[in-house]
Amino acid sequence: MGRAPLPDTRGASRAGARRWRAIWLWPLLAACALALAEPAPYQWRNVAIGGGGFVTGIVFHPHQPGLAYARTDVGGAYRWEGAARRWVPLNDGLGRDDVNLLGIESLAVDPADPDRLYLAAGTYLNARTGNGAILRSHDRGRSFARSDLPFKLGGNEMGRGNGERLAVDPNDGRVLLFGSRGAGLWRSGDAGATWSPVAGFPAVATASEAGVQTEWAGHLPVGIVSVVFDAGSGRRGRPTPTIYAGVSTGGTSLYVSHDAGTHWAPVAGQPRGLRPTRIARAGDGVLYLSYGDAPGPNRMNDGAVWRYAPATGEWHDITPAPQSSDTERDGFGWGAVAVDPADPKGLLASTFCRYGPHDEIFRSVDGGAHWTPLLTGAQFDHDSAEWTRDATPHWIAALAIDPFDADHAMFVTGYGVWASRNLRQAGTAPVRWSFDDAGLEETVPLALVSPATGAAALVSGVGDLDGFRHDDLDRPQRQLDGPRLTNTEALADAGQAPERLVRAGRLRRHEGQVRLLYSRDGGAHWRAFAQEPPDGQGAGRVALAADGGRVLWTPEQAAQAWFSDDLGTRWQPVQGLPASAIVAADRFDPRRFYAYEPGVGTLRLSDDGGATFRPAVAGAGPADAQGAGPDRPRHADVQASTTQRGTVYVGAGARGLLRFSGRGLERLPGVEQAYSLGLGKPAPGAAAPTLFVYGRIGGIDGLFRSGDDGVHWRRIDDDAHRYGRISRVTGDPRRYGRVYFATEGRGIVYGDPR
User: Fold this and answer.
1) How many CB atoms lie under 10 A from the CB of residue 497?
2) Chain center to CA of 737
3) 145-149: Cβ within 8 A, 24+ apart
4) Element (H or E) spanning 735, and its range?
5) Degrees (nearest 5) of the Cα angle 57, 60, 62?
């Protein structure tokens, strides 16, 4: 064997000197880049899907025609503009640090002031999540002040469709009550600015029985689910004496106060064994309550609807349909009950988790003595969102009747809002329902691809809805055809054959179905691969060679990546590639693939079509120190250049924005954090693609654009359009400046320069 060559220490010294110069030059270069930045105003719109997420509550203002509000579990709150028949999002100004506030636990309006709106905001109860807050507005949600709470809220937890927990005193708008999950009842006497606990509320509100056991998080509190003021018990300008509160327990669950909330006692004669889900007060003072054996929404196998007349103390079971009406024979509960504000005998009530044949809404005009089903035999108008033809109404957790139009009612589902226009014809003619979800874009996108050619401007993967081919960004489109996935979590197209795409996802049912699909016509039609590799749980990450001939797939929980040249007939293991690596295909050379390991900062290359990988460069130099600790990147965006062969960019979290073009992995100056990265059409006269980075530059978290390969950056979002935490940034290869990104509950957003 020949002697191994001695290392070139001179080269190592030069490289080390370059790295050390980068340490002190980088802040100067960053400052220069920012000093040259100019404002770049953008117009932001949703890519229209039309609904898609769980709307957990709806409230009409009792004295302002055409005004209503909706809350969602992860996508913020919305205002209904009756004249335009459109929802307006209210919380897009919340940024990355406040993403937890996009889950709305409850909402309330001031009956005496149509401009005042209150939101109880907070998504999760886990230890990693911050506390909740009350957001209060004096201009119908156009702006908010914030009052932080010393406990967590659960806008996306069990019982999130119960309500309403937050209530404004109809006689004294300075007084608000909020029923928490684990901290009891809280009161404000200054229109929501400050809050204090109500000491006299029974301890059951914080007891274990007012919670629920889950498989994923153990025991979770549900607490007080509904607060209702009895307006007729008081007079204007003074706190209302009589107040009711329902606790999520199968024991004694309904409590009343007759001294404005100081002392509380159980309501006599109440039913036991079921938990209240909603409480509605009629104009004559009668209460109507819906119940389930669980708080929902994951399951509910028993329930009832009851009427309580405080004047006489009488309770009556007025449940509209028996358990035997469930064709699946696993039972169901009752999600909501609503009263017509103009008619104390006019009621609506909804089943919950009745999957056979489907959930139903019942109507009564005599206080619950007789009921008529409204959905069976009804006419549903799907024109506004064709994909809803395949969706069954479910998780009907809230109902509301328009105070100014008794024909107009709304009900929520796990995927949006339906509205009637002829409710009073029920029983004599089919009720007509339209999908009134325009503007209410509550989805969680999981993957985005903007093809370089073809009819589709965008192809998306969406949680719970599989995905969409967006030929028109401003009109809801049909879901992706072919075998249906529950979630599409990975998408890839071929750089030199963009009509070829692959997608991978997961399924809740039909576990024999292959979870990797392909299209040869730009996403118009899809077919499943022949089979899956012998390892993994579907979903994961995919990459497609530049000519579309080879796919690399690292399924979730797989020990390694696999490749196939024949649409899955045969799978072979990839050599030299850790399962944690994120892979991208070169957009020009079908034999070149790149792989980046987020945990160690190593870039690997393949020049044999992804069959084997070798280290190209290890680590990201001295900048690695900035990736230590809790912000060390566990995910990275790897994007091969759309204009330059052999060049790849890596959005590497705390390591910033990296570029490899054959001479080493360099950190581009100015980018302190790179959470997500996308490439778009080059600026006029430029050779490099336009870079879009969602990250931190100059100490500001935002969405930035560079048209000169990272030398200068412009922030393109603004303080009114932050959308919580965004991800999966994707530039448009055909239209300069256009960018798409995914949110964690506000759907897909796209922007164009103004």
Assistant:
1) 18
2) 26
3) 145/193, 147/188, 147/192, 147/193, 147/194, 147/195, 149/122, 149/180, 149/186, 149/195
4) none
5) 140
In this prediction, residue 635 carries a pLDDT of 74
From residue 461, give the alpha-carbon distance in Å to each of 444, 448, 658: 9, 6, 26
| DSSP character string of 309-353 | ETTTTEEEE--SS-GGG-TTSS--EEEEEEEETTEEEEEEEEEES
What DSSP state is assigned to residue 454?
A: S
Helix (H) or strand (E) run with residue 35 in it:
helix 9-35
From the list 423, 411, 289, the residue with the least C-alpha distance to 363 is 423
Q: What is the DSSP letter of 414?
A: T
Q: Which pLDDT score is estimated for 658?
A: 97
Catalytic site includes residue 73: yes
- Low pLDDT (below 50) residues in the chain: 1-37, 620-633
Which letter does DSSP use for residue 303 in this model? Answer: E
Q: Supply the DSSP string of 417-443, one letter for each residue.
A: EEEES-GGGTTTSPPEEEE--TT----
In which residue are the tokens 């044949």 written?
357
Per DSSP, what are the bridge partners of residue 301? Answer: none
Q: Sign of dihedral through CA atoms 207, 212, 217, 222?
A: negative
Active site residue 436: no
Of 249, 247, 227, 219, nearest in space to 125 by CA: 219
For the segment 533-552, what is each residue's pLDDT rounded down to a tens digit? 999 999 999 999 999 999 99
Q: What is the pLDDT of residue 34?
A: 47
CB–CB of 191/177 below 8 Å? no
Q: Which CA distances in Å does 579 have to 435, 439, 562?
A: 43, 40, 10
Question: What are the C-alpha distances in Å from 517 to residues 481, 492, 530, 572, 660?
Answer: 11, 11, 9, 18, 31
Residues linked to residue 504 through DSSP beta bridges, in sequence order: 490, 516
Which residue in the list 464, 521, 624, 708 is annotated as catalytic? Answer: 464
Cα gap 573→587, rounded to integer Å = 23
3 state DSSP class of 163: strand
The Cα 163–Cα 280 span in angstroms is 10
pLDDT at 586: 98
From residue 680, give the alpha-carbon distance in Å to each of 457, 605, 716, 738, 740: 12, 23, 14, 7, 10
Give the distance, in angstroms, between the CA of residue 444 and the centroid of all CA atoms in the same chain.
4
Q: List CB contacts of 434: < 8 A, sequence separation 6 or more.
A: 381, 384, 418, 419, 421
Is 158 in contact with 171 (CB distance < 8 Å)?
Answer: no
Q: Which residues touch 103 (CB under 8 Å, ≥6 apart)? A: 72, 73, 74, 121, 122, 123, 124, 153, 154, 155, 156, 160, 745
Q: What are residue 204's phi and psi, to 5 degrees?
A: -60, -25
Q: How many CB atoms sit inside 10 A of residue 425's CB?
A: 13
Residue 91's CB is within 10 A of a number of other CB atoms, namely 24
